Amino acid sequence: MRPTGKLHIGHLVGALENWVALQNDYENYHLIADYHALTTNLETAELYQNSIDMLIDWLAAGIDPQKSPVFRQSQIKEHTELFLIFSMLITTARLERNPTLKDQVRDLNIENVIYGHLGYPVLQSADILLYKGDVVPVGEDQVPHIEITREIARRFNQQYGDVFPEPEAKLTKFARLPGLDGNAKMSKSAGNTLLLSESPDDIKSKLKKAVTDPQKIRKGDPGRPEVCLVYTYHQKFNPAETSEISSACKSGLLGCVDCKMKAAAKISEYLAPFREKRSYYEDNLNEVKDILKSGEEIAGKIANQTINEVREVMKLG
Length: 317
Ligand code: AMP
What we know:
Blueprint: H1 9-22, E1 30-32, H2 34-37, H3 47-61, E2 70-72, H4 78-86, H5 92-96, H6 99-107, H7 115-118, H8 120-129, E3 135-137, H9 143-160, E4 168-170, H10 200-208, H11 229-237, H12 242-251, H13 256-283, H14 285-313
Parallel strand pairs: 1-2, 3-4
Helix pairs in contact: 3-13, 4-8, 4-14, 8-9, 10-13, 11-13
Bound molecules: adenosine monophosphate.
């Protein structure tokens, strides 16, 4: 994940919850993609603070650093070395076809794409393959990048010998959570987020303004839950009541304001333990910094082993 500040519920349901669930069955590695953050924001003054803020969100969501090392991309030089080698194994035409890049260029109104942004999935391939990752729990927007990673791994293995696995993306049921403004994806750049650390009052007031079915203007009008983002939130945070809410919305019995307040209450309840753990880590920042330091030591060793293997098969020693 890129350290772009505090995480939103899209990050949680699209990726982070999956990370937590998988840590018992897999050897997990969690990367703070601080170099990747530069693709859309060259300002570095807040990069470290944003990294710590994001790490606190991870820990509060249940990432156990004993099982899953956490580390910054910029601190492990092997990422940049493997990125350079991988950049020889993929064409610019292939990278220009990347649909995630096209979406970002459109959504962020980017006029001139920088080289590093074009190469984003190549650096990501290095991030994944340095740890020989075979399963990558991500949201839907990242699936094209995992496909590029597979292609690079295949190309490397054909050229130099079998070193890398061909990783697969692992998606959740909510691989693209919509934003509060009705946009198909919740994202910081769209300004349509609900943060994990939001207070119950803020959750209520943000939900109040959420966009619902445009055809349901007042209570009594029949609604269409299938096009309503608040209904999607109910499906995730209030699964026990979804069928009741769906029929009450369709019949017009349930108005949007009541429906939104129900969702706000359930989301607040869901995030309560998270908020509590977050405030513990905010008060114990040294513990967070130590966690990062020891994660970087562990990850550094693995990355070094892999790069040595790469250099050996490429006869670069
Ligand atoms: P990023 O901030 O782009 O580095 O994203 C971090 C992870 O969160 C990636 O796996 C994304 O696919 C996932 N993610 C971000 N926003 C959403 C969303 N609205 N719905 C589902 N997953 C998301």
